[in-house]
Amino acid sequence: MPRTWKPNVTVAAVIERDGKFLLIEEETSDGIRLNQPAGHLDPLESLEQAVVRETLEETAYDFTPTALVGMYMSRYRSARTGQLVTFLRFAFCGEVGSYYPERPLDEGILRTHWMTRDEIAACRERHRSPLLLTCVDEYLAGKRAPLEILHTHVSVFEEV
């Protein structure tokens, strides 16, 4: 029987404030890396719910998505397993809200950083995703799609 190929669906938050972008620093199997607040889509949630949850878990900030910056595919070879892994990333921009300094960050998240585009570009070797700078640049170029283009059917929220 042929094996079914399924890319990993992820979400990312492109959050800008005063010319700086909110990034997370995290421990990975490839070492300590920088990324946007990002993570996998979980069962029973929409893409928008996933990016709100991931941002809160990884940064302790509330996030309200207002637009889709883009949809991206990338592939890399896992240093841990040697396997090729494909990601389908949905990157959202929006408004950063309340900060909860007492809230613990997800396991593996070391800290958050606010960095300029040039600071991000200057440390590409530390990027977890090859899409980190692409998402920032497309955000800065004004690329936006309304959230109305996304539709989550009610069946997604039904427990089976």
Description of the molecule:
This protein is α+β, with helices and mostly antiparallel strands and about 160 residues long. About 15% of the residues lie in helices and about 40% in strands. A five-stranded mixed sheet has the order 5-1-7-6-9, sandwiched between helices. Strands 2, 3, 4 and 8 form a four-stranded antiparallel sheet that branches. Strand 3 and strand 4 (about 30-35) form a beta hairpin. The model has no long low-confidence stretch (mean pLDDT about 95).
User: For the CA atoms, what is the radius of gyration?
Assistant: 16 Å
Q: Could you give the distance between the termini?
A: 26 Å
State the order of secondary-structure elements, H for helix, E for strand. EEEEEHEEEHHE
Number of helices: 3
Question: So what's the oligomer here?
Answer: single chain
Summarize the structure.
With 160 residues, this protein is of the alpha+beta class.
Topology (elements, then pairings):
Elements: E1 8-14, E2 16-17, E3 20-28, E4 31-35, E5 38-40, H1 47-59, E6 61-77, E7 84-99, E8 109-115, H2 117-121, H3 132-140, E9 145-146
Parallel strand pairs: 1-7
Antiparallel strand pairs: 1-5, 2-3, 3-4, 3-8, 6-7, 6-9
Keywords, please?
single chain; 160 residues; alpha+beta; 5-stranded mixed sheet; 4-stranded antiparallel sheet; 3 helices
